């Protein structure tokens, strides 16, 4: 058996759609989970998110931040605020994959942009892809094909043959993007997917509010309903 790195096969959305039997949804109501209604934030939570954004901006203004720093000052506090560190959620680390993106400008001719995706799984239905760039910032769009592949990689067991919604958040600490795949249980059937807008620390308003509310909403969806 010849094993080929996923990043060598899936580098564009076109490749992901063809090889994974995916189709970008054209239904505006396909991905309401990032739009609302979303859980509210308390004043204390908003104040905490304001501190997280200010802290990120302070450290980022002097240069690139390593993954460990991003986890400490942004990601870990954000996941804690959203409730993903507490029951009934279970977190587990998955695998890391490397990204090699061809240069898109003459200034980078002869160079290969490198990065790494670390995947973290929450309850099997929500994946977190953490992008760490090497030497330069990578566009989060470059991580979408691989993230879609990992969402489809491990079919859930013991569930009825019905479409299954799966979610992911891709982040480099400075930008955040949510993905949804409605996975079909029949392998020959096309699975639909869609993306949220990008959220970042750059606008005047604190878009971490939106990210935290979306995470809270997804968390509520993943909690099993009482019988």
Layout of secondary structure:
Blueprint: H1 6-9, H2 13-20, E1 22-24, H3 43-60, H4 67-81, E2 91-101, E3 113-122, E4 126-134, H5 144-151, E5 164-171, E6 175-183, E7 191-195, E8 199-200, H6 208-222
Parallel strand pairs: 1-7, 4-5
Antiparallel strand pairs: 2-3, 3-4, 5-6, 6-7, 6-8
Helix pairs in contact: 2-5, 3-4
**Average pLDDT score:** 77
* Count of strand segments: 8
| Overall outline | globular
Q: Count the DSSP helices.
A: 6
Going by helix content, strand content and strand pairing, the class is alpha+beta
Quick one: biggest sheet? 8 strands, mixed
- Distance separating the two termini: 45 Å
Helix content: 25-40%
Low-confidence spans: pLDDT under 50, at least 5 residues? 99-105, 111-115
Order of helical and strand elements: HHEHHEEEHEEEEH
Fraction in beta strands: 25-35%
- What is the radius of gyration? 18 Å
Can you walk through the features of this model?
By secondary structure, the chain is an alpha+beta fold. The protein is 30% helix and 25% strand. The protein has six helices and eight strands. Strands 1, 2, 3, 4, 5, 6, 7 and 8 form an eight-stranded mixed β-sheet that branches. Helix 5 (144-151) links the parallel strand 4 (126-134) and strand 5 (164-171). The protein is globular and about 45 Å long.
């Amino acid at each position: 058996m010849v094993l080929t790195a996923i990043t060598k096969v899936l580098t564009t959305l076109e490749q992901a759609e063809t090889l994974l039997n995916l189709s970008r949804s054209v239904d505006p109501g396909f991905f309401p989970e990032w739009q609302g209604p979303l859980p509210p934030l308390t004043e204390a939570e908003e104040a905490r998110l304001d501190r997280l954004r200010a802290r990120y901006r302070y450290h980022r203004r002097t240069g690139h931040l390593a993954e460990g720093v991003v986890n400490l000052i942004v990601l870990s506090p954000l996941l804690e605020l959203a409730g993903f560190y507490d029951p009934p959620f279970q977190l587990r680390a998955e695998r890391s994959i490397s990204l090699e993106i061809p240069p898109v400008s003459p200034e980078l001719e002869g160079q290969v942009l490198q990065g790494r995706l670390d995947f973290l799984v929450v309850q099997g239905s929500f994946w977190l892809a953490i992008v760490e760039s090497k030497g330069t910032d990578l566009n989060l769009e470059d991580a979408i094909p691989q993230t879609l592949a990992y969402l489809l990689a491990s079919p859930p067991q013991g569930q009825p043959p019905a479409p299954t919604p799966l979610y992911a958040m891709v982040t480099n600490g400075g930008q955040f993007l949510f993905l949804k795949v409605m996975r079909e249980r029949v392998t020959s059937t096309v699975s639909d997917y869609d993306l949220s807008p990008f959220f970042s620390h750059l606008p005047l308003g604190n878009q971490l509010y939106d990210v935290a509310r979306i995470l809270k909403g997804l968390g509520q969806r993943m909690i099993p309903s009482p019988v």
